[in-house]
Design a protein that fits this description.
With about 475 residues, the chain is α+β, with helices and mostly antiparallel strands. Helices cover about 65% and strands about 10% of the residues. Among the domains are: about 250 residues, no CATH class; about 45 residues, no CATH class. It is built from 23 helices and eight strands. The longest helix has 20 residues. The protein is globular and about 70 Å long. The N terminus is likely disordered.
Length: about 475
């Protein structure tokens, strides 16, 4: 199921690289955007596409190069931004962002791994840590309140196959923060080639990818892909990469596992983003039968044709009965086809196979809520929220479940948080005040309401 942004609202110990109080990485990411936005031009929406299946596939592809970079397993998450332009970037040491346009443009797993290796090199070489230190932002941003104030976000429409969380980010501020020097790019290229060789990926893919972008700097800036602005491309840089790859004399073989996960991520993403007719014409030529069935199920669901979608998903379950993401997709299709009870069962199987996945838990809670089981829904939703604090859909569903179980104070506080995440601070303030009146003073939920009030006050003072 395609869904979106996850993090836990925790403050940790002193950050080992910046020496500043440490926040959860995504909260820190949002806080960085707040700093940029305070000096930025009018914002444009950035949509993060979150899908447990796609993220699992990208994680499988990233892990060998992350291991080669010395980055601990699970320490870096790869996220997809819905944008047809070609770009990839890092904003902190815990996330790599890749545009959907670039992911759909690439032809091989090696090309994708070359991008991931290059971005991992920016993290491993300390380029992002130095930028944080130079901005001195971590010392001035702490706690949930400012992080909430940073998140100008809005969920996608209820029941949509592809929901979204939009972050207001000025394009000018983006370029300033995410751009790298030519020296950094050269260092990242050198490291990335080493990582790819160590991961047994073909380093020649980096040349193929750079050739896609060659000539971009000769274009008017308005016509350039963002990659050319954030990652300076020069003939010297391309020649240096070619020379290093030639000198390495690497002879990697085909990695069938990498090829499979690349095809699966690309196939499912294209099925959600492109017209169903386009997908159905091409599904038969997919890399494997199960990927073809995933694409068909998504395409028929989007037409919509529930009968054919469920028929495709039935064949898929028979083929991969222990795949949690197959059951998750089945649960989504059933839920959006108004078959809540069947959806509960499908999400239950998915959650049993992947008990720690926040997106699956959120879907399970949503299905339970639709089936009229708010108490059970709360159990799943609270687990999801603990792992994925900024998923506005989970907060919306939690508010409904709390209201249905008579916990109006809790309904108010999560509603306040959801409005804060949407950038609607006046509404957030109303619900936070209501929550503060209903909840026990000094309790953890009461303190969360105070955080939202602080965020709303900070936002109001910024506008004066």
């Amino acid at each position: 199921m395609v869904s979106f942004l996850c993090c836990e609202p925790t403050e940790g110990p002193i950050h080992p690289e910046t020496g500043a109080p440490s926040m959860h990485p995504l909260l820190r990411f949002l806080a960085v955007l707040a700093v940029m936005l305070s000096h930025a031009l009018p914002a444009q929406a950035v949509t993060l596409l979150r899908d447990a299946d796609i993220e699992h596939a990208l994680g499988r592809l990233a892990q060998p190069v992350l291991n080669a970079a010395g980055l601990p397993a699970g320490s870096v998450k790869v996220m997809v931004i819905r944008d047809s332009s070609l770009n990839a970037f890092v904003v902190d040491h815990r996330h790599i962002f890749i545009h959907s346009g670039l992911l759909l443009k690439m032809k091989t797993a090696d090309e994708l791994q070359s991008v991931l290796a290059h971005e991992a090199a920016h993290i491993a070489n300390g380029h992002i840590a130095r930028r944080f230190s130079n901005m001195r932002m971590a010392n001035t941003i702490s706690g949930l309140g400012i992080a909430l104030a940073a998140a100008a976000a809005a969920s996608g429409a209820d029941g949509s196959a592809v929901s979204a969380l939009g972050l207001g980010v000025s394009s000018s501020a983006n370029r300033v923060f995410m751009s790298h020097t030519r020296a950094e790019e050269s260092a990242a290229d050198n490291s990335a080639i080493r990582y790819m060789i160590s991961a047994r990926a073909d380093p020649k893919a980096m040349i193929d990818l750079l050739n896609i972008f060659s000539g971009q700097e000769l274009l008017n800036q308005s016509r350039q892909d963002p990659y050319a602005r954030t990652h300076p491309l020069t003939r010297d840089r391309l020649r240096a990469v070619q020379a290093q790859v030639t000198a390495a004399k690497a002879k990697p073989g085909r990695n069938k596992d990498a090829d499979y996960w690349f095809a699966r991520a690309q196939g499912k993403l294209s099925a959600f983003l492109r017209a169903p007719s386009w997908t159905l014409r091409r599904a038969g030529s997919s890399a494997s039968k199960d990927i073809a069935l995933v694409r068909q199920a998504v395409a028929y669901h989007r037409k919509p044709d529930s009968a054919k979608a469920l028929a495709a998903i039935g064949k898929l379950i028979a083929l991969r009965p222990k795949d949690p993401f197959v059951h998750e997709l089945n649960g989504q299709i059933l839920l959006e086809s108004r078959r809540a009870e069947a959806s509960v069962a499908a999400y239950g199987r998915a959650a049993a196979l992947a008990p720690g996945n926040a997106l699956i838990l959120g879907g399970q809670g949503r299905a339970l809520l639709a089936a009229g089981q708010p108490k059970r829904a709360l159990q799943a939703l609270e687990k999801a929220r603990a792992r994925d604090f900024t998923d506005a859909r989970v907060l919306r569903d939690m508010a409904t479940a709390y209201a249905k179980t008579g916990k109006t104070g809790m309904a108010s506080v999560v509603t306040a948080e959801r409005y804060a995440l949407a950038g609607r601070f006046k509404d957030a303030q109303i619900h936070a005040k209501r929550a503060a009146d209903l909840l026990p003073r000094g309790s953890a939920p009461w303190l969360r309401a105070q955080d939202v009030l602080s965020a709303a006050e900070a936002q109001a003072s910024k506008r004066k």
